[in-house]
Design a protein that fits this description.
2-enoyl-CoA Hydratase, Chain A, domain 1, 7-stranded mixed beta sheet, globular, 2 domains
Length: about 280
């Protein structure tokens, strides 16, 4: 049998552009990046929710794709302890994310209803809580009280309290908790949305204090991580320990909501919690 010899064409083989495909961390399936973008960064095969930044959540949740008005947008972290390398880490985080801090807040609309929204971004030092982070939360809560409209926080904070600021960071657990108490005293509804991961001091303070607590599917939620807990108690942990579905079964969260349904669910909850209060009252 004869075969025709194929002539090799110079430059015929082309390299695949970097970042064209992404692999699901859960099922290992490969997908085109734009396919995941269209599916809101949720794996079409297994439903794994990729971590996304604050700009993405603003785009899919807010009517205008952004805040109507930003709160405390001028605040930036300092280096009160002169911690080695902290300023450089902050500069890199700012350059990487385009943010001034791990948290942002502002006035937004969700299906016509005005709310104060607080968002954190894991890409900025793990979404960790520093003094500015806590101040942004507190000021946002005061705006919700002033405007008499609901408050929503959406967290992706795996870093907990930021060690680079020492006690200044730890005190933000108190400050944010006080803010929640003050909203409760004024009858301001507070919805806490937990995404992967929400851990440490963030989870041990305001994030777990919502009137309603929502979690994205598969999110890691807790104080210490499962590996630390397992090493400490010297026991095997239950399957799915500290994941959204496990915590739903235990009554720690009220509902697990896929990303595609999050805006719709928030809108319905705002109608229930707020009545007609807060619709298009920009001031």
């Amino acid at each position: 049998m004869l075969f025709r010899k194929r002539k090799k064409i110079e430059g015929e083989k082309k390299d695949i552009p970097e970042g064209l495909f992404l692999k699901c961390e859960k099922c290992g399936e490969l997908f085109y990046k734009n396919q995941l973008e269209k599916n809101l960064w949720v794996c079409p095969k297994c439903g794994f929710h990729f971590r996304v930044g604050v700009d993405f959540y603003k785009k899919i949740l807010f009517d205008d794709g952004d805040f109507i008005k930003h709160f405390a947008a001028d605040l930036e972290s300092q280096d009160p302890l002169d911690f080695p390398g902290y300023k450089e880490k902050l500069d890199r985080a700012k350059a990487k994310t385009g943010l001034k801090e791990a948290a942002v807040s502002g006035l937004a609309r969700i299906n016509g209803r005005e709310v104060v929204f607080f968002l954190t971004d894991f890409r900025f030092l793990g979404g960790s809580m520093g003094s500015v982070y806590g101040e942004i939360f507190y000021r946002a809560a005061q705006e919700a009280i002033k405007r008499n409209i609901p408050f929503i926080s959406l967290t992706s904070s795996g870093g907990g309290a930021r060690m680079h600021e020492g006690i200044f960071s730890l005190m933000q657990m108190v400050k944010t908790t006080v803010a929640v108490v003050e909203m409760e005293e004024k009858g301001i509804p507070f919805i806490s949305v937990l995404t992967d991961p929400t851990m440490g001091g963030v989870m041990a303070s305001f994030a777990s204090l919502g009137d309603i607590i929502i979690a994205e599917p598969g999110a890691l939620l807790g104080f210490a991580g499962p590996r630390v807990i397992q090493q400490t108690i010297k026991q095997d942990l239950p399957t799915g320990f500290q994941r959204s579905e496990f915590l739903l079964e235990k009554g720690f969260v009220d509902m697990v909501v896929p990303r595609k349904e999050l805006k719709s669910v928030l809108s319905k909850l705002l109608d229930i919690l707020g009545g007609e209060n807060g619709r298009s009252q920009t001031g």
